[in-house]
């Protein structure tokens, strides 16, 4: 019997080509990491990423049509429909026909959905804590300001803004 030798990798694999410090790559990795962390925290309260933003939008802006909510969140109407179906099955939102136009559904939070607000506030605080670990308050402020500029640049180039 022959013995196989396994060579250990001495460096981390990269998906960023020759420049792992490239801004685009770092942004993509940070966004993916954020989504993974957020998904884990939201799973604790039976929500998926994106559903938190829909609930916050309804709490901040009141009942909305599905189309208006999709525009507000910067997502496709079909994606919004699937998200709302899940939220409705969970009892967190309700949809009812608009009195002005019965073909339009108005989305509202339910008492069960409203009861999630303290939990979502906790998740928001925890994700902020995890994202900014090791940064001073001044660094957090600078990072937020710089990312706002990047977001605005992306929104301008994409012809749409993402809230």
From TrEMBL:
Pfam families: MarR (PF01047). GO terms for molecular function: DNA binding; DNA-binding transcription factor activity. Residues 20-152 form the HTH marR-type domain. Transmembrane segments: none annotated. Keywords: DNA-binding, Transcription, Transcription regulation. The keyword DNA-binding applies. PROSITE patterns: HTH_MARR_1 (PS01117), HTH_MARR_2 (PS50995). It comes from the Bacteria. PANTHER family: TRANSCRIPTIONAL REGULATOR, MARR, TRANSCRIPTIONAL REPRESSOR OF EMRAB OPERON. This is HTH marR-type domain-containing protein. It comes from Planobispora rosea.
